[in-house]
Amino acid sequence: AQAGVEDTGLVGLPKAAKPKKAVLRIASQEGRVPGKDLPEKLAKMEAWDIDGLEVGGRGLQNRVSEINAALKNSKIKMSAICAGFDGALMSDDEATRKKCVESMKVILEAAGAIGSTGLIFVPAFNGQTKLNHIEGRKILLDLMPELCEFAQKAGTRMLLEPLNRKETWYVRLVADAASICRDVNHPAACVMGDFYHMYIEETSDMGAFISGGDMLHHVHLASIKRNLPGQDERDYTNGFKGLKMIGYQDFCSFECGCVGDPEVEIPKSVKFLRGQWKKA
Ligand code: MG
């Protein structure tokens, strides 16, 4: 992950190949967008200048043809899949870990079939494991290679998501996630960043995304209060600068609440984000 190194002024590191020009591809979780069914939601998203769709992983195997049919009639592309598996990968209970791996594989298969960029996962929420940092990391490094190999064969990725300390004590920084994935050392071992959690944990949005580098394949968009970007004073330009430095090509997806009417507020937020991107 050396993309962006040249811009950081760090010395002693090989210069990265010139990264591609970054793009802002805005996506939204399915539930954020009003509409009676997926085709109606996709039509609204298209009209609002949104590029991608994120769906939940629970039961995804039963939705492959529905989702593919809807996407076929739309300019909207598939982005990431949000969790939906059983248990926790970093559980202290072996049976729970096994159940987690098996249920992840079912989702990964479906994720590949709808062209998704990856399955978002958190190793363990607070209360889901009794393992300490050393034991937990060992478990992750034991389980990730098999899952990453499975994901790659299915045509998708594993996306490790850092959260703030109130939700998980284990992986809180994009750099933490990147360090674990670097140890896994598999092309499908990847990371994401969430502007809501990043506001609480990171010292620099730009630094966080540079730490993710070419392993960064998804971003969640939310404000300080976890509403639509633009609904409070959260600034996105520093993070967007980081995305530009690493030549980011994947989606930035709404995972947030909304103050007011989503029919009015979502398109407003999209315009706000395009403005922030321009300024960055
Ligand atoms: Mg998130």
**Any idea what the radius of gyration is?**
18 Å
Can you summarize the main beta sheet?
A: 8 strands, parallel, barrel
Helix share, percent:
40-55%
Give the overall silhouette.
globular
- Helix count, DSSP H or I runs of 4 or more residues: 10
Q: Give unreliable regions as ranges.
A: none
Total DSSP E strands: 8
The end-to-end distance, rounded to whole angstroms, is: 22 Å
Task: Going across the biggest sheet, name each strand in turn.
Answer: 1-2-3-4-5-6-7-8
Q: What value does the average pLDDT take?
A: 95
Task: Report what the structure shows.
The protein has 280 residues and is of the alpha/beta class. The protein contains ten helices and eight strands. It has an eight-stranded parallel barrel, surrounded by five helices. Strand 4 (118-121), helix 5 and strand 5 form a beta-alpha-beta unit. Helix 4 runs parallel beside helix 5. The longest helix has 22 residues, at 133-154. The radius of gyration is 18 Å and the shape is globular. The chain starts with a helix and ends with a helix. Magnesium ion binds at residues 161, 194, 220, 255.
Task: Please name the defining characteristics of this protein.
280 residues, alpha/beta, eight-stranded parallel beta barrel, globular
Task: Please render the helix and strand layout as text.
Layout: H1 5-8, E1 25-29, H2 38-47, E2 52-56, H3 64-72, E3 77-82, H4 94-113, E4 118-121, H5 133-154, E5 158-160, H6 174-184, E6 189-194, H7 195-201, H8 205-212, E7 216-221, H9 237-245, E8 251-254, H10 262-279
Parallel strand pairs: 1-2, 1-8, 2-3, 3-4, 4-5, 5-6, 6-7, 7-8
Helix pairs in contact: 4-5, 6-8, 8-9
